[in-house]
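Researcher: Before we compare anything, I want clean individual predictions. No alignment, no superposition, just each chain on its own. First chain goes here; please echo the sequence and then give the structure tokens.
Model: Echoing the first chain and its structure:
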Amino acid sequence: MTEQTTRESMQYDVVIVGAGVAGLSAAIRLKQLAAETGGDISVCVVEKGSEVGAHILSGAVFNPKALNELLPDWRERGAPLKQPVEGERLLFLTRQSALPLPLPPSFHNQGNYIISLGLLCRWLAEQAEGLGVEIYPGFAAAEVLYRADGSVKGIATGDMGIGKDGRPTDAYQPGMELWGRQTVFAEGCRGSLSEQLIAKFQLDRHSQPQTYGLGIKEIWEVRPEQSQPGKVMHTVGWPLDSHTYGGSFLYHLAENKVAVGFVVGLDYQNPYLSPFEEFQRFKTHPAIRPVFEGGRRIAYGARALVEGGLQSLPKLTFPGGVLVGDAAGFLNVPSIKGAHTAMKSAMLAAEAVFGVLQNGAAEEEGAEAAAYAEAFRQSWLHDELYRARNIRPAFKWGFWPAMGLNALDAYVFRNRAPWTISHHGRDRESLKPAAACRPIEYPKPDGQVSFDRASSVYLANTHHEENQPPHLKLASEQAAIEVGYRRFAAPETRYCPAGVYEIHHENGAPRLQINAANCIHCKTCDIKDPTQNITWICPEGGGGPNYGEM
């Protein structure tokens, strides 16, 4: 057995956690600013996925607004933006019909592109590395490091080769400590270290609770006659009831490929609801099924997304670092877009951080806080989120009241209504007891357009080393049964889109079985568990899904 050794350390000017569009945009902008001033700074990016893009999942219709600012010559550089949007529709579904709705202003996608966000991240990584950024995929940031004065010093990557008993195995490799004068957290939605920082520094004490949705996505290769490259379609209504927020998207790419997805707001009330089953049922609708009949499903994945918007943004800075992208909550919910907003937030943060580094006050909180906050307030990003601020929280009153309020806001007040609607509260508090709800009978998958979880998870290419410590922590097995199972009918067995959670009966007694190897890192259990009994932490680096072009 190898004995545990002291971790080595490396010093950088800036350490960035996460190689998504936010983290990579911050890295690129920092290097650009250094070049503009005739100097240089050292920038390191760590990424928990096995490669850049492996854990990236998004719709994605991409607004190039921020990319135009970051890399104006992106076309000449070969950015993977190939398919422009060439038509869009919004439908209201009933069980058998599809009724066209007028497109609200937030849905208009002229000038946008249907892309793979994973491919865009890989391309951004190439641009960053070309500027001298060091990128380390397969290294999960597992711990925040602090200086003696309480400011953030950097991060430590997780030790590799730790067994389920918590002891080093023969394959043990100690993690690295990466120290930065400033640390940028770009972990994406519900980042585990970002959540710790928000709690430690009370960054959300003046914010409304963050609220979330679960997005589930598949990529299909459809029959040529069903392919309409550039076509964008969204639906609302069936199969969800009028008190459950959500809807679908169908994005037609080139080469007979279609990205289809379904989003369910995690403030849903019925513990018997299964977002995965709702998605599978959606594809059987008479207006949707013909697109996929005779086709082939080639990819599957799921990810939580931040829906709180402007009201739920935490303070963006803390001593020694900043939050950017979805780690803070910059998604524009009604437009169903977060990549361009994440990029812009990261660019603003990079400019503030660079100014602090130049002034030699990198460890002092205040300078970067004021610069980042003021730059955000003066940016188009703030204006965009301000205009969108009322759309999602209005749905706490149901679908039709929300549609009416949002139409009034959009067409009368031009999204500048003289009110701001509060959110419903925390998603984990929204479930009703199972006894107060009616079970939902979902149809069995037909294997043609609808499928089960096992075959779906297989397409996510997820992998975790068998002997590593579980990354899904259960605080109390008793609470899982006495509260989760007996009061709420074990909702984790339905809200998890990967079949991680099962109830087994042994000698007549129920027990919660956690199949951590199935996890596709959507973070839903960390959000929706009614007693916060489940905590998601980073597994050993490189573990999880490998999405390819999702």
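Researcher: Okay. Second chain, same rules.
Model: Second chain and its structure:
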Amino acid sequence: MENGEAINGKNEFEEYLENENLGMPTVGEVRKCTVVSSGTEYVIVDLGAKTEGIITKKELVKEPQDYKSGDVIEAVVINYRGEEEGARTYLSEKRYLVPKILEEIKKSMEEKKPIKGRIIKKVRGGYTVEIQGTVSAFLPGSQASYLNNISNDELLKKEFEFEVINFEERNNGNNIVLSMDALVNKEVEKFLQSVNVGEKIKGVVKDITNFGVFIDVGPMIALIPRSEISWDRNVNLKEKFKIGEKVEGIVISKDVQNKKMSVSVKRLTEDPWEKIEEKYPVGSVVDATVTGIAPYGIFVKIDDGIKGLVRAENIFWGNTKRNLRDYFHENDQIKVEVTEIDKNKRRISFSVKDVKGDPWNNIEEKYHVGDTVKAKVEKVLDTGIILGIEDEISGFAHVSELSWNFVKNPSDLFRKNQEVEVKILDISPEKRRMKLSVKRLQKDPWEELSKTVKIGTPVDCEVVNLKNSGAILRVVNYNVEGFLPKSQFYDGIKVGDLFKAKVHKVSYNPDLDERDMVVTIKDLPDNSKKEDHKEEANFNQGPMRTTIEEMVNRKGEK
């Protein structure tokens, strides 16, 4: 009994020691440890022995500060120092887990099941991946095309799934090669097989290019071709979409073998050309936005995907040879009338002038010959000036109607946009023309001149033009126009010559609009017919005007 009691007592003692784990730790022994405290470089654990254990940072699966007091972990003893050396026990969590994880990795490859890991850093040719915080593996760049669409910050934060494509255990380090594309391709293939052409799908904008928009639809990136974004062909992609924006579309094609998918956004809405003749019948007036300006017309948009042309001849009732950019600008809002629709060719034409109506209709009820009106100079020509009376109504004042005095260059008297008062001389609605006069609102100098100038009155003259019938002159003394018959031309006569002459004829009949002066150089000394320009520098060369040129033209016609 005593011996039995002794034996039983010994067994109980050994069991006690085992339960209390008071045995001295041995290298290679696995221990359950309770975290006591953690620092930046190590973790202190209670391993149930006389001394506490230390697990350094490189032997931990996580960062030291990620361990909390009371956490229970398993670790293997890698070094023990007796009391003479400070009684320290060093353990490793990694070395305990590595064999188990390697076994899991090997099994994952054999069963072709995915395994999780984190990308630690980018290295030459690919990436370093850490599995369960212990085992390093290599992810070739050729097997990680999916990562091209992920930012570096997101890359290091997320945990990804991989497929093990190679596993070799070596004494000097394990060779583990992973693939992300192999796994992604399987998911993409499965995804594509589950999606049907014609069904709606949602995605997030990842990239915007000239040829389309790429969207993330889950396991893959799909393309919205430019032609499938809007019925409006000229849509600005970067204005319509923003990176990270959610969009919805319709699957229009898929390629399981090449892992591709195309999506359409515009097909969520009806093609505007299908019912265009119902919505915008010929003759209807609609609001439009100017989208472009060309020499031959302006382009306008009346709805998404519906753009057309307003030809230059359908813009103005009057002169169509105008610079359209002086009248229209991009994004201007205007009203247009639909004039033509070709549904098959997706073409539509408009008119601006038909919306306003022809301003020349019933114009004689609004304006009358003899009326004085205010006008604005639209264009200055060598032959006269074009004057705008109101929108689409303009007239012409011939150079002979600009001043009673002689006018060599209309630009000397008038400038564009200058406001003047004019008298209406003639209205021709069928020709869309109106003759105007500036001078007839001024005092006629010929009235006084006809009373004072007689036959034989000496005058100084300047040649301003040569005709077949004679020379058109500026009578310097009175700043009016005169005429020298060709029969009296002297040798070498030319424009700009200055000479002395005598009045041969003066004719003034305002009722017949006749104002003529003919000069002669007969009975004058030969050396007085032509003078040097310098001697005549004191001549009055200000602006003047007469109608002698008209007389010359009439004589030439006879």
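Researcher: What stands out in the second chain?
Model: The CA atoms of residues 212 and 225 lie 4 Å apart. Additionally, The chain has ten helices and 30 strands.
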